[in-house]
């Protein structure tokens, strides 16, 4: 036992907790940077506009499917490290929403015309 009363089991548990917290923060930062880059690449004025928009092209539909699958992977990792669920829910929600809207043909109607309805 060390001078602080912390033994090997405590160090292992603290290390695992630290890795989970740091991994969650890094995962969130990577996802945010990816959202910003994709919004610029697809020509949207903001990241929020990109996440709310219905996919207009096949590349955007593929990106939506990729986004949903990445979110699903993070949620599955959340079974091991629960904070990952919080990171995975955002891309899973927005990716799945984009896929569903595109499959329903909702991209044919301009959302700006129907905001008040």
Structural summary, described in words:
The chain has helices at residues 8-41, 47-52, 58-77, 83-104. The model has no long low-confidence stretch (mean pLDDT 81). The protein has 117 residues and is mainly alpha-helical. The protein has one domain. The chain is built from four helices and no strands. Helix 1 runs parallel beside helix 4 and helix 3 runs antiparallel to helix 4 (83-104). Helix content is 70%, strand content 0%. The radius of gyration is 19 Å and the shape is elongated.
So what's the overall shape?
elongated
Instruction: Enumerate how many helices there are, as a single number.
Output: 4
Gyration radius, in Å: 19 Å
Report the β-strand fraction as a percent range: under 5%
Question: Distance N terminus to C terminus?
Answer: 67 Å
Q: What low-confidence regions span 5 or more consecutive residues with pLDDT below 50?
A: none
> Quick one: how many beta strands?
0
Structural class of the helix and strand makeup?
Answer: mainly alpha
Helical fraction? over 70%
Query: How does the major sheet shape up?
Result: none
Mean pLDDT: 81
Number of domains: 1
SSE string, helix = H, strand = E?
HHHH
Give keywords.
single chain, 117 residues, mainly alpha, elongated
Q: Topology, pairings included?
A:
Elements: H1 8-41, H2 47-52, H3 58-77, H4 83-104
Explain briefly what this protein structure is:
The protein has 117 residues and is an all-alpha fold. The chain has one domain. Helix content is 70%, strand content 0%.
């Amino acid at each position: 036992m060390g001078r602080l009363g912390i033994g090997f089991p405590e160090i292992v548990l603290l290390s695992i907790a630290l890795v989970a917290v740091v991994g969650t923060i890094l995962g969130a930062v990577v996802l945010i940077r990816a959202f910003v880059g994709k919004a610029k690449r697809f020509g949207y004025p903001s990241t929020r506009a990109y996440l709310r928009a219905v996919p207009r092209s096949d590349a955007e539909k593929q990106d939506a499917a990729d986004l949903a699958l990445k979110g699903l992977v993070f949620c599955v990792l959340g079974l091991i490290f629960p904070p990952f669920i919080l990171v995975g829910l955002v891309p899973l929600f927005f990716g799945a929403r984009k896929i569903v809207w595109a499959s329903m043909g909702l991209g044919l109607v301009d959302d700006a015309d129907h905001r008040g309805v």
